Amino acid sequence: MDSIIAFFSSYFTYWPLVCFFALVLAGFNLPISEDVLIVMSALIAYEDNSLLIPNYIALYAGIYISDIICYWMGRLIGKGVLKIKFFTKALSDSKMEFLSKKLEKHGFLTFIVTRFVPFGMRNALFMTSGFTVLPFPKFMLFDGIAAIISSLTLYSLVLFIGESAQEGFKIVGIVLFIIIWSAVLVFVIKKIIDHKKKKKIASMQKTGAHEVAESSEVEEMPVKQVGER
Fold first, then answer.
1. 205 Ramachandran zone, left/alpha/beta (phi>0; psi -120 to 50)
2. 103 and 12 share one domain
């Protein structure tokens, strides 16, 4: 792990920029983990103190802009302008109903809690905020404060525990590797199964249509014969 961190700190001079643009892309629902980038940035800053402030500034700016992108995607989805499935799938009806109720009831507290919940819940909250037309200035205020609290907490925690974080990150890296490849495998298998199901359904529909056509012909035959008589 030391060699990996050393590689980043020695050769990846533009890590803050890479981190910033990666987080901005995450705003478009790409599978980029905010938490992993925060941990990596803190570990690099731990090795190279000169990157302590630049890394965090890049993190916060990327997180904030990413959240704003999600908010406006939610607004566009609500207006029926944005209908691309890749973007809309993050905002399921169940998530939106749940989060809109929490927003209405708890307001700012919903942002604080949700910022500590990964697995797509954050983006869903920001898109729900746009969909339900939460005033943009209020969204910027709520999210800006919540983003500082969550990102600075994790960033400071990793810096504080230092070497222990590196050991823990080894385990996290292995777990993430297994999860990612398992997800890829499940995705491929699911696509194969779905493709076979679609082919089977299409075949059954084709066969059913053919049988209906044949039965219609059979039913028409006596009518024709009666007419002939």
1. alpha
2. yes
Chain position carrying tokens 């989060």: 99
Three-state SS for 204?
helix
Domain coverage including residue 228: 181-229
Rounded CA separation 229/226 (Å) = 5
Q: In this structure, are 155 and 197 located in the same domain?
A: no
Asked if residues 29 and 121 have their Cβ atoms less than 8 Å apart, the reply is no
Residues of 199-217 as b/e, b for ≥16 C-beta within 10 angstroms? eeeeeeeeeeeeeeeeeee
Residues 6+ apart with CB under 8 A from 36: 172, 176
140 and 193 together in one domain = no
Q: Could you list the pLDDT tens digit for every one of the 229 residues in the chain?
A: 555 555 555 556 788 999 999 999 998 888 888 988 998 899 888 888 888 999 999 999 999 999 999 999 988 888 877 777 766 676 777 778 888 888 888 888 999 998 888 777 888 899 999 989 899 999 999 999 999 999 999 999 888 876 565 555 555 555 555 666 666 677 677 778 877 787 778 777 776 655 555 565 555 555 444 444 4
Residues with Cβ < 8 Å from 44, sequence gap 6 or more?
Answer: 5, 8, 9, 12, 15, 51, 55
- The answer to whether 44 touches 9, Cβ cutoff 8 Å, is yes
